[in-house]
Write a structure and sequence with these properties.
856 residues; alpha/beta; four-stranded antiparallel β-sheet; elongated; RNA-binding
Length: 856
Amino acid sequence: MMKDQKAFDPKSFEDKIFEKWTRQNAFSAKVNPNKKPYCIIMPPPNVTSAAHIGHAMDGTLQDILIRTKRMQGYETLWQPGTDHAAIATEYKLVEKLAKEGKTKESIGRERFEKEAWAWYDKYGDTIMSQFKKMGFSADYSRYKFTMDSTSTDAVLEAFIRLFNKGLVYRGKRMTNWCPNCGSAVSDEEVEYIEEKSHMWHIRYKFADNDGYIVVATTRPETLFGDVAVAVNPKDKRYKNLIGKYLIVPLVNRKIPIVADDYVDKDFGTGMVKITPAHDPNDLEVAKRHDLEIISVIDKFGVLTVQAGEFAGKKAIDMRDEIVEKLKGQKLIEKIEDYSHSVGHCYRCKQAIEPMITEQWFVKMSDLAKPAIECVKNGQLKIFAKKFEKNYLHWLENIQDWCISRQLWTGHRIPIYYCQSCGNIYTSKKPCNCPKCGSNNYVQDEDVLDTWFSSALWPFSTLGWPNDTPEMKYFYPTNVLVTGYDILLFWVTKMVYMGIECTGKVPFYNTILHGLVRDERGRKMSKSLGNGIDPLVVVNDYGADALRIALIKDMSLGMDSRFGETKLENARAFLNKLWNASKFVSLNADKFGYTELKPDQLNDIDKWILSKLNNLISNVTRNIDKYDIGVAISNIINFIWNDFCDWYIEFVKVDLKSDRATIVSSVLVNVLETVLKLLHPFAPFTTEFIYQEFCHEDLLMLADYPVFDNKLKYKKEELFIEKFIELIRNIRNYRNKIGIQQTEKIIITTSNQNFKLVEYLKKLTNAKDLIYEKNEKLEIISEIGMFGIKFEETKNEAKKKLYEEIEKVKHEISRSEGLLKNPGFIAKAPKTLVDAEKKKLEKNKELLNSMMGAKCE
RNA sequence: GGAAGUUUAGCUCAGCUGGGAGAGCGCUUGCCUUACAAGCAAGUGGUCAUAGGUUCGAGUCCUAUAACUUCCACCA
């Protein structure tokens, strides 16, 4: 067991500990009216692939909160699940089928859906087993999936409610079309990428003479769809051209020159070709001028018959050929280099084609209002606060949400078209037309945007629309933890759908963390090959090291870097804890341990207990503020510095004395308390060590430590801090003058009342401490004057003393300057002025004694 | 074009409501001191991006500037 094991070896116990938790159902949540509920709904990872390091951080943060609250006596539910990610999954499935020489059409919708489910199950299982490896204490028995029956029921209910309220409508509008995915995508799913391209200046001849004008375009292949050329009405150059007609090159169609404010007369040539079928702005112009809409690119990105000889070929591939042809006809004025941003599908990275299609939309104006309000009035808080601006700005300017997707993966839209009477109706299950009773109906072919089901996730997982005990007890949930990158995609949707469907905000607090970048600060990506597999890390360093490395330097809303250095550091810390525990355990076996009795404690014991007590309040406060990185740093500093470097070193003295049982008891007490504080961060290691102390119960279900006023030993705490300073001074001093740490020295002091002799000797490696005044060198501390006996005076000693004197002199002049300043005396707080005066006095005394010390 | 964030030691980052610059890693020196060399002790290292301002006092508040990052919008 631990005592026989030289070093921390997480592989030897992690799986066993997890089994133990599982066997005791330690993760399971029940509706328990005797306890306060605390609930976190896990953001569902996409089933497109295994979990990555970002999920590891996201989950670690949630697990820390859940485990802390569980120990603090809340009934905690951490609700896990996964998301079907329609577009992304369909993309991967189609890719997979292509490798097998099939297409989705060739196997048909039914078989395709079967394939999809096999995929969902495979990755859902993979992700959950990864989460278990990382120690995430979610209630896996409640695993949900955005396509399972409960989620489907919620989706149908929500859709029908919105439809009946008139908040869902169908419209023929300009939408973002991904020719590669063969589907519309929402505004949020379009990613603008800066691309180097050209601006082609094309000549358009007049209909009635040989003259021409020049328009500039970045998309020459759309010219077949031109229905006008627009100029700004205020543009004097072209005023007399308005109303004249031009001929579209290559297709020889006659189009008018119109005037419209939309045109910027200073951009390009001040003339814009209007292609309403493939540009949202052009469409607006066309509407104003009652122009025809000519579609030249179809759903596959292929040119239509309108493109004449180019029809049937991919529009993007034909660009150069079209330009060549124009060149041949001397219709190209010039070609400029030009870089502009082009919309791309965020999944498949192909260029988006704006296209007029018929889609279903959710009307946003009414839904957005309460979602804005709840953040403004503080009902819903966003951490870090800076993101509230983004959130509000987004919702205040939101456009209607396109929710239909031309895919087979996802929830099929519950809309039916009666073939007999033309009625359009919605229903949870296929049913005869409610208007004419006909059974001749068809369901809409499209599926819903994945985010439609994700938007319902905080309550669909709890059983909504049914009035389940879970809904009553756990909803609204307490906190949502996710990356700031999906604040606008997802968080906003959950809020307005939550308020619309349940009348309540879905969660009170939102924590937004940053992205995990690689050690050099680069985004992790497949193309760079710098991605890190969490399971590989768990295998190499252990789950707890992974967790600590991920969150230690994290601050909310900021990207963080991650790599070997941090992992090694985290593992070193756990190894330190391991060895400290071994030390405590060995001594506990040898000397036993009891309840602490205050009258048996000396100043050093009180010091560590008081420090521990402070730690409890700091950690608790920081976790409540979601300063998770600060909280873990507090704990690490306490364990490594206060407990290991000082307290354990101090008590090595006591363990050889009749105080052995007393300090052994303090050691056990401090260790167990700190294990509890650390448990949410490093669950495996702490649980394992705790079990080594022969506990029947689980650490993860133990009571969380609370600040205890009785353990506040302010005086002793300060005194020992001074004592530690003294030891540091002596070590520093002897080091500077070249007496090695291993070499025994004799310390002298004039402080007859000094009681901590044995500790001082042990920690400075002194042979003896003798009472004697007027040493060659004096070390001043508030505890007294100490010196080191030398056989010879050394030059370094003189130098050192000189340096010290200079330092004190500097301090004196600083204090004097400050105290001479009338403004400071008048306006600074009294306590500060008094403290400064005291400091001055003390330093003057110190200087005197130093000047008195002689170096021969 | 609009907005937000960042800028502190060689590197990664802390620094709460303004009151003497911090940690870890790295580096230097000395140590296997019977829990731990994944360790111990000591040390080196910063005009807190720049310029102004408010204040008795500014890393901290205000105003500009610069660099980097991100989000939003997008003019053909």
